[in-house]
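In response to reviewer comment 3 from the previous cycle, which asked for concrete evidence that the modeling workflow produces usable outputs, we include below a single protein chain processed end to end. The sequence was submitted unchanged, and the resulting structure tokens are shown without manual editing.
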Amino acid sequence: MKDDRRHPLSDAHSDRESAAHVPDTPQTRAPSYRLAFADEDFLCRPELRPVRLQLELLKPELALDAHGIESTVVLFGGARIPEPAKKDSARTQTLAELSRFYDEARKFAKIMTETGDGNENVIVTGGGPGVMEAGNRGAVEAGGRSIGLNIVLPHEQAPNEYVTPDLCFNFHYFAIRKMHFLMRANAICVFPGGFGTLDELFEALTLIQTGRMQRVPFLLFGRAFWEKIINWDALSDAGTISEDDLELFRFVETAEEAVDALNNWQDFSRREALPGR
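The workflow returned the following structure tokens.
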């Protein structure tokens, strides 16, 4: 981002440019001579981890502010869920059957984008394939913007083609990426998925449960899927969560049902105490 403020001191951009054209000598070729902020090897040292964490929090925050993003609707969900037209290529029959949620995510994102003003309730996904692609795709079809929060993975991957380029970010730290998912969240919608989706689901749910985050509409798409893989009532019966914790989220099946749940959500409070303790 360009700094338009006037000041008498040389700025970092001009000094970096000047440093690139110094005479070629043994001294100027030495790593120690590089400007610290322009030295990638230095910035990647283990001792600089706190600085990298700060930079990774700050860069997307400044960009989202600059683009006027006030609030978001978060879409979590499986990268392996195909669109219905490609469900024959799914690795399992279950994934093929879950392809209907690709369409529901796409439709939901389209509705939310159409009813938003471009700055509020902007769709944000992990920027990858599957349900994430569906969310970004729906926003594009509505003529709006959407955010993609990618993460560096060992295998080659790229953001899906529907993420707004200027709102597409890449992360090294999962923890900082999770913070950006929730810092502007007006609602959290979770579609069927795997380890990553479960991690995101329980991270967000724990923050609300413990009062570290205020209640927002928290919707789980596909009751049958979620009740098959998680025995919610067993957790309550065992006392490891309270019965009240089961009221922190709702099950929905369709985009329309989800929009209705968001529009009629009433409790946006922050817990002051943990029920059951």
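Residues 125 and 148 are 5 Å apart (CA to CA). We consider this sufficient to address the reviewer's concern, and the full set will be provided in the supplementary archive.
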